[in-house]
Design goal:
The chain is mainly alpha-helical and 199 residues long. Helices cover 34% and strands 8% of the residues.
Length: 199
Amino acid sequence: MSWAKIDDLLPHHQKLVQTGALAPAVYGYYVASINFCRRHFTDGRVTRADFPLILPSCPRPTRTLLSALERVHLWEREAEGVWYVHDFLDHNDPAKVIKAKLRADSDRKRRTPPSGIPPESERRPRTLPPGFQPESERIPDVASDKNQIRKEPEPDKSRVADPPPGTSEGFSIPPERKEPDRPVRIGELLTRFRQAPDG
């Protein structure tokens, strides 16, 4: 981002007072021309082809406005269609000085890491506390239950397993069927009581 120097007393300058009712237009176009020269490194020179870039909202300034700028010596005509902003280099650095500063600033930012991190050559060597061993150099403890992998014993394929109880040659023997308990009726109890031998 570039900056242009403008006197804060410029609105009260005698040159602007002499422009009368045109003072707002003269002031605005004069300040816009200073900003244009600073942004495009023209060292204060303005041509007719630059008018659309000086103030985009006024791409074709009137002859009255241009005459007022020349009459109070805010613009000085150098040739047909070429003007010089009065005392521009007295308050602003020339283009070659500005470009050199920008290059130096760019080189400084390129050399300086972000967030204030010092360069690699200025960093202190990394030191580890006594007895500390990095994770990559640690030897796993095979005797530890956490690191030891437990494996289930594999069955002996050479030995034929005994058939499970209740099975014979691959056929399952159903268990003995039991009658489900049922309630005994009163009539049945009386019958059993009468059939019981005396004694």
